[in-house]
UniProtKB/TrEMBL annotation, chain A:
It comes from the Bacteria. GO terms for molecular function: NADH dehydrogenase (quinone) (non-electrogenic) activity; NADH dehydrogenase (ubiquinone) activity; quinone binding. This is NADH-quinone oxidoreductase subunit N. Its EC number is 7.1.1.-. Pfam families: Proton_antipo_M. It is found in: Cell membrane; Endomembrane system; Membrane. NDH-1 is composed of 14 different subunits. Subunits NuoA, H, J, K, L, M, N constitute the membrane sector of the complex. It is a multi-pass membrane protein. It catalyses: a quinone + NADH + 5 H(+)(in) = a quinol + NAD(+) + 4 H(+)(out). Residues 124-414 form the NADH:quinone oxidoreductase/Mrp antiporter transmembrane domain. Belongs to the complex I subunit 2 family. The gene is nuoN. The lineage of its organism: Bacteria, Pseudomonadati, Bacteroidota, Flavobacteriia, Flavobacteriales. It comes from Lutibacter profundi. The chain crosses the membrane at residues 6-25, 37-54, 74-94, 106-122, 128-147, 159-180, 200-224, 236-260, 266-286, 295-314, 326-346, 367-394, 400-421, 442-464.
From TrEMBL, chain B:
GO terms for cellular component: endomembrane system; membrane. Keywords: Membrane, Transmembrane, Transmembrane helix. Belongs to the complex I subunit 4 family. Residues 129-413 form the NADH:quinone oxidoreductase/Mrp antiporter transmembrane domain. GO terms for molecular function: NADH dehydrogenase (ubiquinone) activity; NADH dehydrogenase activity; ubiquinone binding. It is found in: Endomembrane system; Membrane. The chain crosses the membrane at residues 6-22, 29-50, 74-100, 112-130, 136-153, 165-185, 213-234, 246-270, 276-298, 305-324, 336-355, 367-389, 415-435, 456-479. This is NADH dehydrogenase. One of its GO terms (biological process) is electron transport coupled proton transport. NCBIfam families: NDH_I_M. The lineage of its organism: Bacteria, Pseudomonadati, Bacteroidota, Flavobacteriia, Flavobacteriales. It holds the Pfam family Proton_antipo_M. It comes from Lutibacter profundi. It is a multi-pass membrane protein.
Length: 474, 495
C-alpha cells in the first residue's frame, strides 16, 4: 500500500486528525483558552469539508475492506456539511457548557468520532469494517444522549439508547454470522456472488436488516426513538435524526443493492410492507404529539418510510433518489431542529402550544421553521418536494403505483401535522407569545445554511444530475 | 426574456421587493405596481397572441423549452394557446382587482400581499406550463398560500376552513400525482424516451388499459379543485371564511385550475379514458350543478349563497367538458372566464357590504340600493349576468354549453342536459330573491343610512371586473373563434 492509496481515506484521516488535535488542545489548554475550542473545531471541520469537494480517486484498500467512489465520497461530504451546521447550531449551548461544566471538548470529540464511524460504515467493503463503523457511530452517541446527566430524562434516554443499540448490534452481528455460515465470506462482493435464496440466508438477512432498521427507526423497530429524542439534548436528537439516520439509510441502500441483490424478491416485499407501516406509524403518532422533539421524532420516522420507496428501484435512479432525498432531508430537518433549539435556549419552551403567536414576535425564525416544515411536507418549490417526487418516480418506475399512492396519502397526512405547527406560529395570536429574542451569530449562520440548502438543493438541478451521474456503480 | 416567463418572474420580483416594504403604504404601492404590470402584460399577450396566431399554426405559440432535470427528462416548457391566454387575462384582472379590494388590509399587510402574489405566480405558471412536472409544481404553489390567506386574514371558523381546504386539495394533488406518473411511464408506449412534455405525450397512443386506470385519477385530481360533487365540501367553507380578495381569487381563479387541468391533461392526453369514463363523471357533475343550485337557495349567508352557486356553475364547466364536443367545450371555457369574473364581482360586492354593515345575513339586509347606489347597481347587473341574461358573458357561456350538450345524439346525454338546464331556473330564483331582498325594499335598519359610499379603489376594482363581462356578452364572436381554433387539436384526439 502506498501513500496514494492511503489518500483514498482522505476524509477519515482528516477527521481523525481533527479529533486528535482536539484531544491535544483539551490536554494542553487552560480553562480560559478552552473558550476558543468551538471556533477552532469549526474551522478545522470547515477545512475538512471544503477539502471533501476536491476530486478523489476511486478504489479500495485493505484487501477490499475499505473502498470509496465518487458517490460514497459525496455522501461523506454531505454528512460533514450536516455536522458543520449542527455544530454551528450547538455552539452557543456549548459555550455555556464551557463555563459551567467544561465539557464542550468531549461533546465535539464524541460527535466527530461518531461521524468517523459513519464514514467507515459508508466505505465498508466487508462486514467487519461495517461492524466497527457501526459501533464507532453508536457508542459516542450513547454518551451524548446522556450528556445532560443531571437531568433524569437525559440519563434515562441514554440507558434506553444504549440498550436498544446493543440489541440492534446483537441482531446485526447475528445476522452477519448466519450469512457467513451460508457463504463462508464476510466480503460484500464475494458474498453477493455466492448468496442464494435459502432459509438460512433469508434469516441472516432479516437479523441483519433488523439491526439497521433500529438505527433508521423503521417500524416496528422505532419504539425507542421518541423517548430518546425527548430525553437527549436537542442537538443530539438532531444528530440522531439527521446524520446517524441519513448514514444508515445510505448504508442500507448500498448493502441491499450490492450484497443482497440475489435476495431482491425477498427484501423488496419486506421493504414494501415496512415502508407502509413506517409511514403510517410515524404519521399517526406525530399527529398526537405536543412536544416538538417528540413531534420531530415521529416525523422523522415517517420520513424514513418515504425513503424506502426509493430502495425499491434497484438501479441508478433508485440510488440517486435515495442519496438526493437524504441530502435534502438533512437540510430540512436541521432547519427545524435548529429553530426548536433556538427557541428552547431562549425561552425553555418546547411545546407546540408555546409557539402560538411566534411569527408576530420572531418573524425570521418562524420563516425558517415554515421553510423547513414545508420542505419536510414536500411543498414546492422547496427541496423536500423534489426529494419526495423523485422517490415516487423511482417506485413508480417499477410499477409500485399503489405504494406511491399510499406514500402521497401519507404526505397529505403529514402536511396536516406540519400545518399544526405553522398554525400555532402564524395563525394564532397570543399576548403571552415567546418574546422577541436575537439569535446568536453561530446559530444564525447554521440556520442560514440550512435555509439556503432547502431553497437551492431543489431548484438547482445540477446537484441531482451530479448525483445521478455518479450513481451508476449499482 | 420571453413574453411568458415574465408572468412568473414579475410576481416573484414583486414578492422579493415586497419583503423589504416597511409599512402598509409601501406594501400597497409595490403590490399595485407589480400587478398592474402583470395586467398590462396580459393585455399585451392577447394582442401578441392574435398577431402570432396569424402566422403560426402550432398548437402552442411562444413556446420555450429549457432542460431542468436532464436524467428524468423534466423540462421547464412553456407555451400558450387561446385557452391559456384567456385564463391568464382572467387571472391578471382578478389579482389586480383583488389588490384594490384589499386596500384596507391592515393586519400584516405585507405578508397578505406576498401570499396573494405567490398564489398568483403559481396560477400563472400553471397556465403557461406545457410540462406535466412544471405544471404540477405550479399547481401546488398556487394551493399552499391559500392556507395562510384564509387562516390569518379570514373570518369565522377560518382555521378549520383553511385546514380542510388545504388537505382536500393536497389530497387531490396526491391522487393527481399518481395519475401523472402513470402518464409519464406510459409516454414511451410508441417507443422513444419517457417525457413529461404534454405536446410530446399527445402524439403517443397510451394503451387503453392504462388510460382507463389513470384517467379517473387525473380527472378527480383536478376536478376536486373544480368542486366536483361530492368532493366540493372544502369549497363553501373555504369561500365563506376567506377574506374578500381571497374569495375572489379562490372562486375566480383557483377553481379554474380544475377545469383547465381536466381539459389540458386528462382529456387531451387520455382521450380513450375520457370516452370510457365520461358518463360516470357526467352524472357526478350534473348532480353537482343541481345540488349547488339548491344548496344556494337554502343559504342565509351571502358568501355561502355565492359559494354554492360556484359549485353549481363550475359543475357546469365539468359537465360541458365531459360532453366531448366543440360547442360544449367552447361554452365550458367561456363559462370558466365568465364565472371567474362574475363570482369575483359578487365576492367583492359582498365584501363591501360586509365591510360596512358587518353582517352577511340576507335577512338583516334591505334597501341598500338607496344608500349605496354604485355598489347596488353593480350588484344588480352582476346578478342578472350571473343568471344568464343576454348581453352579458354568462348568457354566451350557458348557451354554448346547453346547445353543445343537446347536440349529443345519445338519449342519456339529452335527458341529463334537460335536468341540468333546470338549474337556470333555480339560479334565477336565488339570485333574484337575494338581489331583491338586500338591494330593494325599505331600509329596515336606520344605522345603514350612514353607510359610506363606495371609495375610489373599490370602484376601480369593480369596473375592472365588469368591463370584460360586458365585452364578452356584447361581442362574443371574436373570443369564441379564438377558442374554437385552439379546441380543434383536442377534438382531433378524441375522434
Amino acid at each position: 500500500m502506498n501513500w496514494e492509496s492511503l489518500l483514498l481515506m482522505r476524509s477519515e484521516i482528516g477527521l481523525l486528525a481533527i479529533i486528535l488535535l482536539l484531544v491535544i488542545f483539551e490536554i494542553f489548554s487552560n480553562k480560559k483558552q478552552k473558550a476558543s475550542i468551538i471556533p477552532f473545531a469549526l474551522i478545522l471541520l470547515t477545512i475538512n469539508t471544503v477539502i471533501g469537494f476536491l476530486p478523489l480517486n476511486t478504489g479500495e484498500i485493505f484487501g477490499g475492506m475499505f473502498r470509496t467512489n465518487a458517490l460514497l465520497h459525496l455522501f461523506k461530504t454531505t454528512l460533514s456539511i450536516g455536522v458543520l451546521i449542527l455544530l454551528l447550531q450547538s455552539a452557543d449551548w456549548l459555550k455555556e457548557k464551557v463555563i459551567t461544566e467544561n465539557k464542550s471538548t468531549e461533546f465535539l470529540i464524541l460527535i466527530l468520532s461518531s461521524l468517523l464511524g459513519t464514514y467507515y460504515m459508508i466505505s465498508a467493503g466487508d462486514f467487519l469494517m461495517f461492524y466497527i463503523g457501526l459501533e464507532l457511530t453508536t457508542l459516542p452517541v450513547a454518551a451524548l444522549v446522556a450528556y445532560e446527566t443531571f437531568k433524569r430524562k437525559s440519563a434515562e434516554a441514554g440507558v434506553k439508547y444504549i440498550l436498544s443499540s446493543a440489541l440492534a448490534s446483537g441482531s446485526t452481528i447475528f445476522g452477519v454470522s448466519l450469512l457467513y455460515a451460508t457463504t463462508g465470506t464476510i466480503y460484500f462482493d464475494a458474498m453477493a456472488e455466492i448468496l442464494t435464496i435459502s432459509n438460512l440466508s433469508i434469516l441472516g438477512f432479516i437479523f441483519f436488516f433488523s439491526g439497521l432498521a433500529f438505527k433508521i427507526s423503521l417500524a416496528p423497530f422505532h419504539f425507542w426513538t421518541a423517548d430518546v429524542y425527548e430525553g437527549a439534548p436537542i442537538n443530539v436528537a438532531s444528530y440522531l435524526s439527521v446524520i446517524s439516520k441519513g448514514a444508515a439509510v445510505v448504508i442500507l441502500m448500498i448493502v441491499l443493492f450490492t450484497v443482497f441483490k440475489p435476495l431482491i424478491p425477498i427484501w423488496s416485499k419486506i421493504i414494501y410492507i415496512i415502508a407502509i407501516a413506517t409511514m403510517f406509524v410515524g404519521n399517526l403518532f406525530a399527529l398526537r404529539q405536543q412536544n416538538m422533539k417528540r413531534f420531530l421524532a415521529y416525523s422523522s420516522i415517517a420520513q424514513a418510510g418515504f425513503i424506502l420507496l426509493g430502495l425499491l428501484s434497484v438501479d441508478q435512479l433508485g440510488a440517486t433518489t435515495v442519496v438526493y432525498f437524504v441530502a435534502v432531508y438533512i437540510f430540512s430537518n436541521l432547519g427545524a431542529f435548529g429553530v426548536v433549539q433556538a427557541i428552547s435556549a431562549a425561552s425553555n419552551k418546547e411545546n407546540i402550544d408555546d409557539y402560538e403567536g411566534f411569527y408576530r414576535t420572531n418573524p425570521r425564525l418562524s420563516m425558517v421553521m415554515m421553510l423547513s416544515l414545508f420542505s419536510l411536507a414536500g411543498i414546492p418549490p422547496l427541496a423536500g418536494f423534489f426529494g419526495k417526487f423523485f422517490l415516487y418516480v423511482a417506485a413508480a418506475s417499477k410499477g409500485y403505483y399503489i405504494l406511491v399512492f399510499i406514500g402521497v396519502v401519507n404526505a397529505t397526512i403529514s402536511l396536516y401535522y406540519y400545518l399544526l405547527v405553522i398554525r400555532a406560529m402564524f395563525l394564532r395570536k397570543n399576548p403571552d407569545a415567546i418574546p422577541y429574542f436575537k439569535s446568536k451569530p453561530y446559530m444564525k449562520l447554521g440556520l442560514i445554511m440550512a435555509a439556503v440548502g432547502i431553497l437551492v438543493a431543489g431548484l438547482y438541478s445540477p446537484l441531482y444530475e451530479y448525483i445521478f451521474s455518479i450513481s451508476n456503480s449499482f | 426574456m420571453d413574453i411568458l416567463s415574465l408572468f412568473v418572474i414579475v410576481p416573484v420580483l414583486t414578492v422579493l421587493i415586497l419583503a423589504f416594504a416597511k409599512n402598509l403604504k409601501q406594501a400597497r404601492i409595490i403590490s399595485l405596481i407589480g400587478m398592474a404590470i402583470q395586467f398590462a402584460m396580459s393585455i399585451n399577450l392577447i394582442f401578441a397572441y392574435i398577431k402570432e396566431r396569424a402566422v403560426n399554426n402550432d398548437i402552442m405559440v411562444f413556446t420555450k423549452d429549457a432542460v431542468w432535470f436532464e436524467s428524468l427528462n423534466i423540462h421547464y416548457s412553456i407555451g400558450v394557446d387561446a385557452i391559456s391566454v384567456v385564463m391568464i387575462a382572467l387571472t391578471s384582472i382578478i389579482v389586480l382587482a383583488g389588490v384594490f379590494i384589499s386596500w384596507k388590509i391592515d393586519d400584516l399587510p405585507k405578508e397578505f400581499f406576498i401570499s396573494l402574489i405567490v398564489l398568483s405566480s403559481g396560477v400563472f405558471g400553471f397556465f403557461i406550463s406545457t410540462d406535466l412536472f412544471t405544471l404540477f409544481v405550479f399547481y401546488e404553489i398556487a394551493v399552499i398560500p391559500m392556507y395562510l390567506l384564509i387562516g390569518i386574514w379570514g373570518s369565522g371558523p377560518k382555521e378549520n376552513s383553511a385546514m380542510k381546504l388545504t388537505l382536500m386539495l393536497m389530497g387531490a394533488s396526491a391522487v393527481l400525482s399518481v395519475g401523472i406518473f402513470g402518464i409519464y411511464f406510459n409516454s414511451n408506449a410508441d417507443g422513444g424516451a419517457l417525457t413529461f412534455n404534454i405536446l410530446e405525450i399527445a402524439k403517443v397512443n397510451i394503451p387503453l388499459a392504462a388510460q382507463n386506470i389513470f384517467f379517473p385519477l387525473v380527472f378527480v385530481g383536478f376536478a376536486v379543485i373544480g368542486a366536483l360533487f361530492p368532493f366540493h365540501t372544502w369549497s363553501p367553507s373555504g369561500h365563506a371564511s376567506a377574506p374578500t380578495a381571497v374569495s375572489m381569487l379562490h372562486a375566480g381563479v383557483l377553481m379554474k385550475l380544475g377545469g383547465y387541468g381536466v381539459f389540458r391533461i386528462a382529456m387531451y392526453l387520455l382521450p380513450l379514458g375520457a370516452l370510457s369514463w365520461s358518463n360516470f363523471f357526467l352524472v357526478l357533475s350534473a348532480t353537482g350543478v343541481i345540488y349547488g343550485a339548491f344548496g344556494a337557495i337554502m343559504q342565509k349567508d351571502l358568501k355561502y349563497v355565492n359559494a354554492y352557486a360556484s359549485v353549481s356553475h363550475l359543475g357546469l364547466v365539468l359537465f360541458a367538458l365531459l360532453m366531448l364536443n366543440k360547442t360544449a367545450w367552447n361554452g365550458a371555457i367561456i363559462q370558466s372566464l365568465s364565472h371567474g369574473l362574475l363570482t369575483a364581482l359578487f365576492f367583492a360586492l359582498i365584501g363591501m357590504v360586509y365591510g360596512r354593515t358587518h353582517t352577511r345575513e340576507i335577512s338583516k339586509l334591505s334597501g341598500l340600493m338607496k344608500i349605496l347606489p354604485f355598489i347596488g347597481a353593480i350588484y344588480v347587473i352582476t346578478g342578472l349576468a350571473y343568471l344568464g341574461l343576454p348581453g352579458f358573458s354568462g348568457f354566451v357561456a350557458e348557451m354554448n354549453i346547453f346547445v353543445g350538450a343537446f347536440e349529443h345524439p345519445d338519449m342519456f346525454h339529452r335527458i341529463l342536459t334537460i335536468i341540468v338546464v333546470s338549474s337556470i331556473v333555480v339560479t334565477a330564483v336565488y339570485i333574484l330573491r337575494m338581489v331583491g331582498k338586500i338591494m330593494m325594499g325599505p331600509i329596515t335598519n336606520d344605522e345603514y343610512r350612514k353607510l359610506p359610499k363606495a371609495t375610489w379603489y373599490e370602484k376601480v376594482g369593480l369596473v375592472l371586473l365588469m368591463i370584460p363581462v360586458v365585452i364578452i356578452g356584447v361581442m362574443p364572436l371574436g373570443l369564441s373563434e379564438m377558442i374554437k381554433a385552439s379546441i380543434q387539436p383536442f377534438l382531433e384526439r378524441l375522434l
